[in-house]
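[Meeting: bench + compute handoff]

Bench side (C.D.) handed over the final construct sequence. Compute side (W.E.) agreed to return the predicted structure before the next meeting so the bench team could plan truncations. Sequence as handed over:
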Amino acid sequence: MTILKALSADDHAVVRRGLKQILHETSDIVVPGEATDSGEVLEQVRARSWDVLVLDITMPGRSGLDILKEIRQLAPKLPVLILSMHSEDQFASRVLQAGASGYLPKESAPEELVKAIRKVCSGGRYISAAQAEKLSYVFESGSDKLPHESLSNREYQVLRRIASGKTVTQIADEASLSVKTISTYRARILEKMRMRSNAEMTHYAIKNQLVD
């Protein structure tokens, strides 16, 4: 029997411990590696080969979404399962387009996590049945994109943080970027979405359930 080696990346120790306990009960998945931020993730991916990376989106500094492209370059065949506290509606489509193999909300049942890891390791993609149906409808209908879908991953994250009430300075600190850079992202968001203020962005984000 092949034993799958998983790298767990999350800045919360309780989440990493919980993941390890869940997978310890399986006969075919082990977690010999952990990472607490994006820098450690990239170091671990460079250092050894893994069968799957279970990656959180929201981590200190650069987010999981930010480093997906680099992970794809370092290990093109490595399946990446996003395990996040955010709903699928907010991120599933975006992370799949960025190269992830699956998306699973953290409130999912333990057996669903095991199922998701096995599926992405076998070359498949994993999202919930409900989300798959939504994405299928969008692709088949050829419907126009919503305004926020034209944003880059970084712009999308800045939009969500502004809509959550964060200031430009707070966002810059969280993302380890300059205030000027975040201000530039904000200006691009307003331009792309044809809006004039943070209030408009916040209203839009709440209406479209882009914030928790």
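W.E. noted at the follow-up: Residues 171 and 177 are 8 Å apart (CA to CA). C.D. will use this when planning the next construct.
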